Task: inverse folding
């Protein structure tokens, strides 16, 4: 009876297990509650809304924390159903310190923190921003997050290389612009670190207009750097696009493969 209850509870809470009406209902409710919590945190920062509906925000927060606390306790209780967390003590400890479990814990800890601290409440409210971590709980309910994770894992070397090239380009562009524009605008291009602000806004093609070159050589250099910036930020997009294409091809191949023998399935009329 005990083991059966634990098994059914685990299946209800784990979106990768089961597929009954109740499984889908609970998964849908948890997803909706997570999204509503994120929306509530956003609207709480609007003073007019918070003053008018402060009690409603508070009631919704209490309900959400109670539900997520119950969910967390049940997950810790049922984790021993999985083989790698089978030990009742060390298995649960391993589960508690796993990434998904830490996200679940951080999503509810800020609510209880003001109840047990001696610090000023205004300072403690900063910790309540951690409630945004509830959105990461969606990761276990959406298959898309697994695809995105696989893409970043498969393309991490290329993405790191793009980041290194971009940082190098920022340093080189800042150094060149400093030596070109420093004498003409010593207040705006006072140092290479200060010039990096201009370099970043130019490479990202934002161009706020607060810092811009006035010399002929500086304008030519800015034009070249802007063109390079467009290319540099298009490069990671192309890498990610190819990664998504490869991942979708892999998923398509898995769907057309027999799960028992591993042979490719063909449609024969």
Result:
């Amino acid at each position: 009876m005990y083991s059966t209850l634990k098994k059914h509870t685990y299946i209800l809470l784990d979106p990768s297990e089961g597929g009954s009406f109740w499984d889908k209902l609970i998964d849908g409710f948890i997803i909706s509650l997570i999204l509503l919590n994120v929306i509530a945190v956003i609207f709480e920062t609007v003073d007019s809304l918070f003053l008018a509906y402060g009690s409603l925000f508070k009631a919704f927060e209490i309900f959400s924390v109670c539900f997520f606390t119950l969910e967390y306790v049940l997950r810790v209780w049922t984790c021993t159903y999985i083989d790698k967390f089978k030990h009742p003590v060390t298995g649960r400890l391993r589960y508690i310190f796993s990434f998904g479990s830490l996200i679940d814990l951080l999503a509810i800890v800020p609510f209880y923190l003001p109840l047990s601290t001696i610090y000023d409440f205004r300072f403690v409210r900063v910790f309540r921003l951690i409630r945004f971590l509830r959105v990461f709980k969606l990761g276990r309910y959406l298959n898309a997050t697994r695809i995105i994770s696989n893409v970043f894992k498969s393309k991490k070397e290329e993405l790191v290389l793009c980041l290194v090239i971009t940082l190098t380009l920022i340093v080189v562009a800042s150094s060149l612009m400093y030596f070109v524009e420093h004498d003409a605008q010593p207040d705006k291009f006072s140092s290479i670190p200060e010039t990096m602000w201009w370099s970043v806004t130019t490479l990202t093609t934002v161009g706020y207009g607060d810092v811009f070159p006035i010399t002929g050589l500086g304008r030519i250099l800015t034009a070249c750097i802007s063109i390079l910036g467009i290319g540099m930020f298009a490069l990671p997009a192309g890498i990610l696009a190819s990664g998504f294409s490869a991942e979708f091809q892999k998923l398509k191949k898995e769907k057309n493969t027999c799960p028992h023998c591993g042979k490719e399935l063909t449609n024969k009329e």
